[in-house]
């Protein structure tokens, strides 16, 4: 019996081997079919055939990793994650090339986790990769990028430093480190990192980053010089031209901006944002007509259309040309589509109030049906009109009902500060303005200057002279043509009763005001009313009594001082000057 059983076993061996070979051949066919389908882009068939292969050959970890990577590359991140997890559980049974396989598996799992927005898991897998190969700079770069995405910049920088200890001229890591330092606003350190890169390795991207760092840190002259060199070397690079224009606008180098725009007119992307910059440039060099013509080419649907229109109006306001500002707004409003811009109507209503016609302003606000979107804009305008007519408490009541509205946010906060100043609530003004200053960006320099001016006036009134002096110094850096800082210096010295220093400051201010014209831009034109009569006399003398604007201001100051006869004499002379024909 045992002999017969032995014979049967021997006879069955070839059949088993044949069956195994057939199964092996079948699985290979599925694997080849899967790879061919993947190459052909037939993802559904490829997935089915990979699954069929793995069902027949569950122990082929290499192919299972290949399949998981295929799923990842085709956007099936959740399915890929399942296979990576299965493989991680099976790692203990891998014998040959275990470390290399574990490295590849964890690296793939990490990249999949990033795509699946599971950054914490990604970091865990990346750290496992570094256990097997701590010197892989590419992997370190990837994990540093994930750290950066999570806001964990210090850990990202630490990784960069470790790589740079071994490879100090690793261009990719130096670039990454520079970008991380920029994210942390550590501009000097970022610039220093770039300077360590040998010139033969430095590329366009790094040189542009160096110029950008100068611009972001306020070193505009350096940034402009670097960009000018780059556009000369790479004249066809449109991005360089566009960024140069942007930096010139930040630096307020308006004549140079216009010259650059003309030189690179075929290279600069002439979109609505660029047109808005050019509108600002033309306004700043006194070319209002060109600014208006250029503004007309901006698409009404663009966000810059309204901003540029208001910029033109604000230009007239800064020059105290109220009639011209109102006329400009009326033309814009009358030429608009039926759904007139609420912002422009609100501005027009406020302008009438500036021209001592608040009734006309309220009439404009009341004659249009108000949509839910326009209501806060009109209410903000109403609050401003109330403020301009001295009803500060009523204005604040409206302001507090509109807090948090995005359409009127900054404008309302500025108006609130004006009301607090008028009501002599200096403590609240200084507290609220301090918070607001921290929120403003580099592009909001004019608003920063307005806030600083109000703060300085409050500080002088409340005896914070040291703080006022520091902020006058800050204000003087924002616009060296504005006489505001010189006026504030005189007011500060007068409050401190530093008579000798005040007399010297009066002479300086008189010289500044001697060049005053109707076109002189001021952050706060109301400061002219605070200039002492003695200073207007100095300015009038220095201008040889030929400056019409100075003589008008002196006549006002004489009247305020109670010198009615002198004021009348000046106004009479001014009347004759206007009637006299030009030579």
From TrEMBL:
Record's keyword terms, sorted: Repeat, TPR repeat
A Pfam family per the record: TPR_19
SMART domains for the chain: TPR
Stretches forming TPR repeats: 137-170
SUPFAM superfamilies recorded: TPR-like
InterPro entries (UniProt xref): TPR-like_helical_dom_sf, TPR_rpt, Ycf3/AcsC/BcsC/TPR_MFPF
Full protein name: Tetratricopeptide repeat-like domain-containing protein
Biological source species: Candidatus Brocadia carolinensis
